[in-house]
Amino acid sequence: MISFANKLRWQIGENLYETLMESIYQNASEIANKSITYSDKKPPFSLDRALDKILTSKYFGLPIMLLMLAIVFWLTIQGSNYPSSLLANVLVDYLHPVLSNFFIKLNFPFWLKGLLVDGAYLSTAWVVSVMLPPMAIFFPLFTLLEDFGYLPRVAFNMDALYRKAGAHGKQALTMAMGFGCNAAGVIATRIIDSPRERLLAIITNNFSLCNGRWPTQILISTIFIGGLAPAYLAGLYSSAAVIFVAVLGIVLSLIVSWFLTKTLLKGEISAFSLELPPYRPPRILQTLYTSLIDRTIFVLWRAIVFALPAGMLIWLVSNITINDISIANHFIEKVNPVAFWFGLNGVIVLAYIIAIPANELVIPTILMLTVSQLGISEFGAGTGVLFELESIADTEKILTPGAWTLLTGINLMLFSLLHNPCSTTIYTIYKETKSLKWTAVSTFLPIVIGLIVTFLVTQIYYLLN
Amino acid sequence: MSTSEISGCVNCPVHNSAQLKKLGINMENFDFVVALAGNPNTGKSTVFNYLTGLRQHTGNWPGKTVTRAEGGFEYEGRKFKVVDLPGTYSLLSTSVDEEVARDFILFGQPDVTVIVVDATSLERNLNLVLQILEITDRVVLCLNLIDEAKRNGLLVDDRVLSKQLGIPVIPTIARSGFGIDKLLKMIFDVATGNYVTKPLKMKTYSQELNSAIDSIIQALNEEFPNLPNKRWVALRLLEGDPSIINAIRSGELGNININSPSTVAISEK
User: Fold this and answer.
1) Does any CB of chain B come closer than 8 Å to the CB of residue A146?
2) Of A113, A250, A425, B86, which alpha carbon lies 20 to 30 A from A152's?
3) Is the ipTM of this complex over 0.90?
4) pTM to 2 decimals?
5) Which residues, including other chains, have CB under 8 Å from residue A182's CB and lie 6 or more apart?
6) Chain A 189-228, CB below 8 Å of chain B: which residues?
């Protein structure tokens, strides 16, 4: 069949494709010319052009982009503080004891009440109160920018940088989607047609902090970085730290792309054309509605589905004991010496293992494990109970005796950026690449980088102190 | 349900909109399949949402939809399944999202293909329209964004356009819903055969080319009897398109399954 077609092709002549395309273009232009009339009055001033001149300018483009990023993050961090603690008050401080007493009254066995109320319910309540407010602010803001038409301009601004790194300019778009959810970002790489550049975009998408990791960044930077500043500057300091980590992620995605281009994924950079669509006034009400109902609730639901079993698992590992010491504590003590090299500790390592299904679980797991390890009875409802603290100061009271220092805080933030993607993202990467090898690279490369970075930071920290 | 009882009302927009029953993702036992095709960022997902009542995510950037989304609506008692496709500039494209669109238009055999066109850049959009007209007759052109075109000093005469292309052209502003009622009625008319299109076929094929195409179609008939759009495949073979040649080598062409690999149900977007 193929050779038959080849033979016929010789008879017709080689430039068939060109002839066909030419006739299409010619027809299109004729038809268009016949049906379009231009009105005489030209628009006197084109707002789009003027905006594009500033937003995609050589000098202002990137700074404006960083400024927008900073404003979005700052609004998210500041805005979610109060609603988060309000939710925690209701769901954890008020409802948890109520549920707990109810189960005790009904004479539920100790372990069943522990699994359901102190494990599943509390972890879910924590995830909701910590995730819902930042998402409900971040997603609408992001969607408004998207509706307005800003995303293609971001790609335009970043194109030169990505090209220098050997990657595709549209990687900027998929990266932006990754700030919401890495799995979505990985699917979005379908817009990149060169397989080599698409792989680069998939592997580096994890360097976009996803919404499961924002809460970790926000909380830890508020305690450890914000604490360094006088009270009235604390919000600014902690926002700056979070933005620094986010920008570090973007820089690392460029460096890793460049490194892979020079080693495993050599190849030509493909040219592409990107349409800059007109700016459109965002439909504010509709955007609020869809981003709240669809995106926020959808992502939150996913988190809850993972939080329920994870909460039970946490309760089990901290309540099943061998030689009077819980499984969790056995693990923590074994891992601690190694973890200290990296400025982390056994609790953090265990938390990251439990939180593989969803990054949202890292903070609740860390707090709960720290408490059960230290045997602090002042907070929460007893050993192995996940809890939310009424204030950030209370959280600090737990972390400080747990040998947490500024170094631990910094490295936890860095490790939260630089570790394996969540299991959903890993599965999505496999579905999109159909390759175990690249799935493994995408999974382990960030961990290796994370360990190197935290090790270096730790050594420098000790040298300076 | 009888459709011709009140003929005077049929052309009234209020009547048309009132006949629309948005079915969301509930689309069992549909009568017709409608594909939404077009260049990137012309408003396909906005039209889709309007027709189905779903809230497929929309955004102002090319490349937003990378998978197929499906939904349904009921109109005049008939059930329609609507498939929202990723935007594509051409049927000869290579990226995964554009292949999703290409494969569905070619091999999914929709009853009606609605091409959503950006009125502000008509000429470029028409390149895709002409390619689609080569492979399917039942096409409705949705001339979208006419408000933006007007703002840029462009007036597109939909009747002249329709006459030249031989297919119905409906001017719309999908963001506000303007023209969707007429689009609905036209989709219905073309699907049921009330409106017969006479699409423009380009007359650039030489006699030699035509006979070459015919002999390849014959060969295709023997090897892949169930393959739709053999003419298009034959043309690609004559051009030496590597993706089609590979599909033949691997035998994939024989059992092209448009339900794989990239379908994502709307609930997991």
Assistant:
1) yes
2) A425
3) no
4) 0.71
5) A205, A206, A208, A210, A421, A422, A425
6) 190-193, 198
